[in-house]
Amino acid sequence: MRTKSLTVLGQNEAGRKTLIGRLIYMFGLSLTQVSELDDNGCRSHGEVASLFEKNQIAPLFYGPSNIFEVEGITNPDVALWVVAATDIDSGNASRDALASLISNKQLQPKELLVIIINKMYLPLGGLELQSLIKSPHVGIQLAG
Predict the structure, then answer these.
(1) Helix 45-54 vs helix 16-27: angle between axes, to the nearest 10 degrees?
(2) Which segments of the chain does DSSP mark as H helices, in order?
(3) Strand 60-62 relative to strand 66-70: parallel, antiparallel, unpaired?
(4) Are 79 and 112 within 8 A, CB to CB?
(5) Which of 75, 138, 131 is nearest to 102 (CA)?
């Protein structure tokens, strides 16, 4: 299995740490690490990511054909952009921030950019997907 780099970005309070913790918890923990999490009182997925950071443990998880290491780099193999679907203004601000990062070459995923809609507490009409992808062409092809 090849190790690939993964960056998780998005607006504040979008759920980046929770997503990282969930991926590690579901696909990256050994039984001894699960026991260690219980011993440290981790009760949420966000606490998993924080504990890994605090103990300087590389955040890794397994995918179907690769191992993914979460890193804060500008040119990862895969980038996840987390959007909080709490209101339309949050979605618009997130879209603009992502477009700025890409156009300024601060984010250049080598293989894949995935946009993740999180915190979908509103009715589906509360956030329009088109508002997230309606931006000037910045060199990244969005998967349909």
Answers:
(1) 90
(2) 16-27, 31-39, 45-54, 88-103, 129-133
(3) antiparallel
(4) yes
(5) 138
- Domains belonging to the chain, first-starting first, are 2-133 (3.40.50.300)
Edge to edge, what strands does the sheet with 112-118 contain? Answer: 60-62, 66-70, 2-10, 78-84, 112-118
3-state DSSP helix/strand/coil % of the chain, to nearest 5: 40, 20, 40
How does pLDDT run across 95-120, given as a tens digit for each residue?
Answer: 889 999 999 999 999 999 999 888 77
Residues of the chain with pLDDT under 70: 121-144
pLDDT at 93: 84
* pTM across the whole model: 0.74
Q: What pLDDT, on the 0 to 100 scale, is given for residue 133? A: 53
Report whether 29 contacts 92 (CB < 8 A): no
Query: Rg of the Cα trace of the chain?
Result: 16
